[in-house]
Amino acid sequence: MIREIVVYPDKRLKLISKEVCSFDDTLHELLDDMYDTMRSKNGVGLAAIQVGVDLRALIINIPLEDKEGDSYGEEHDANDQPKENTLEMINPMILEKDGSEKFQEGCLSIPGVYEDVERAKHVKVEYFDRYGEKQIIEDDGFLAIAIQHEMDHLDGKVFIEKLSFLKRKKFEKEWAKRLKA
Ligand code: CO
User: Fold this and answer.
1) Which residues surround ligand 1, an ion (CB under 5 A)?
2) CATH number at residue 102
3) How far is the CA of 35 from the centre of ligand 1 (A)?
């Protein structure tokens, strides 16, 4: 079921999400709904708080046709993101991160805005899958960026907070204008 996406500057996006304690049907329904919601907007990732649920859960589905140089959060065709390719991360924790890379990012909570953001190039992350099994994943590409972007949401952060002062100011002005329109 498609849920409503929380749009910036909704205060819920600032919440620190809580640890998931039960890996039950309610969690599975949330994850399934998050996939439907993400797909409905052709997104590549979504955190639970973006559908108003303050739990440490996120999903990522990197399109099959993804090419080098694509920006994170850019829209993609359906069929390119089969559900079985969805990475579901519950209570993720960064074990290692190093290097740095600039990448253009976007966010379903700030639709239509794409900006360069600097993040670690490589991350190693421990998380639980929907059945509560501990998993470890490591990446130094698009997925590493996606994981860091979505994990920020769990701590109440959005990517535009990483922009320079001037770029942020410009964004806020344009965003306020857009919300009024
Ligand atoms: Co986002």
Assistant:
1) 107
2) 3.90.45.10
3) 14
Q: How much distance in Å is there from the Cα of 149 to the middle of ligand 1?
A: 6
Residue 93 covered by a domain:
yes
Is residue 40 in a domain? yes
Q: What is the span of the domain harbouring residue 143?
A: 11-180
> If you measure from the C-alpha of residue 117 to the centroid of ligand 1, how many angstroms do you get, rounded to a whole number?
12
Domain contains 4: no
Residue 93 backbone phi and psi in degrees, to 5: -140, 130
The string of pLDDT tens digits covering residues 80-110 is: 888 999 999 999 999 999 999 999 999 999 9
Q: How many domains does the chain have?
A: 1
CA of 78 to the centre of ligand 1 (A): 19
Please list the active-site residues: 150
Residue 133 resides in a domain: yes
Cα separation of 168 and 103, whole Å? 17
Count CA atoms closer than 13 A to 31's CA, side-chain side: 24
- Give the model confidence (pLDDT) of 16-29 as tens digits: 999 999 999 999 99
